[in-house]
Amino acid sequence: MEVMNLVIQIVNKIMAKGLNHRQFCALLEEVDSAYSDLLLHNKVRWLSRGEVLKRFAACLEHVKTFLESKDLTYPELGDPDWLEKLHFMVDMTSHLNTLNKSLQGKGGTALQMLEDVLAFERKMTVFARDVQRGTLSHFPSLREFREENTHINCEYLQDAIIEMQTAFGKRFSEFREEKSTLSFPVTPLDIDPSQLNMSAFPGVSQPDLEIELADIADKDLWMSKFKSLTADLEDVARQKAVLAREHKWSDIENLPKPDKLVFETWNAIPDTYMNMKTYAFGVLSIFGSTYLCEQIFSSMNYIKSKYRSRLTDDSLQSCLKLKVTSYSPDIEKLCSDVQKQKSH
């Protein structure tokens, strides 16, 4: 936090006053910098911290030059230990941003998000080993800093990664224990019913659930639904990975939503397996993240601006529904159902 706090302080010092800000932008333009400005940190936005650090590190020499011209002294900017931490945080927040992006968007299930988090927790073992060996294959900013300074404190950085990994383990320990429960909607027959958390869904009878699972196991008609579901989810995940590698984020939004595929599968299962369906729908109702909630607040701030001060709560609610819903009305069908006026 000491690195982040100082970066925010320096950025605010440059950008808070219009004259300082204009002079700094002019300096960047004069030296043909790859960037035309710094970024302000916003605590509300997930990706803000990593982007601020990355931009600050890229413009560091120009920042030092500008501060010296203003007789502003920050000894940390010349301290190798502080600079080492800065470049380390640039790389680690970049990895965290990649995780955050995978957790965003509509249609993700709690299981999918948990798997992304657990995968990142395992990746931190690779990061720690990378730093211990000194190869820094996954730390490009830190590697570039080492080339200029010849030495970094690998032991300190490795301990920082291990500490972060331990914090991840503690934070998500309860979710890890419930992975069998979260997997039920996708692979119901691969799970031991005794491992399911029945207390979360009081309307489900465990004895009846076990009987239904035994009954459906040899029904090829219904089991084919789950095989098709697995194939569809694999195909979506494969396409998403390809599009993410090519940075085609808008195309990812057009892919089928995993939760919708799972819902459609369970809707096709007959009500004779009501305990199974109730349990599956209960698991699917769990929110994997606060992304949708944050999206609604962002949309509300945009819709209810100072120019729409007379907007009523009912109208605002209707506007929000239109903004965040994935429902696409059939306009032609709706228009055809409306009775035409005789005069026309």
What does this structure look like?
By secondary structure, this protein is mainly alpha-helical. The chain contains 18 helices and no strands. Helix 1 packs across helix 3 (48-58), helix 5 (80-103) runs antiparallel to helix 7 (140-149) and helix 14 (258-267) runs antiparallel to helix 15. The longest helix is centred in the C-terminal third of the chain and has 26 residues, at 220-245. The chain is globular and about 75 Å long. The N and C termini lie far apart (69 Å). The mean pLDDT is 83.
List keywords for this structure.
0% strand, 344 residues, mainly alpha, RNaseH-like_sf, 18 helices, General transcription factor II-I repeat domain-containing protein 2A
- Specify the structural class: mainly alpha
The CA-CA distance between the termini, in Å, is 69 Å
- Topology order in helix (H) and strand (E) letters: HHHHHHHHHHHHHHHHHH
Report the radius of gyration as a whole number of Å: 26 Å
The helicity comes to 55-70%
Mean pLDDT, to the nearest integer, reads: 83
What percentage of the residues does DSSP assign to strands (E)?
under 5%
Shape: globular
Protein name: General transcription factor II-I repeat domain-containing protein 2A
InterPro entries: RNaseH-like_sf (IPR012337)
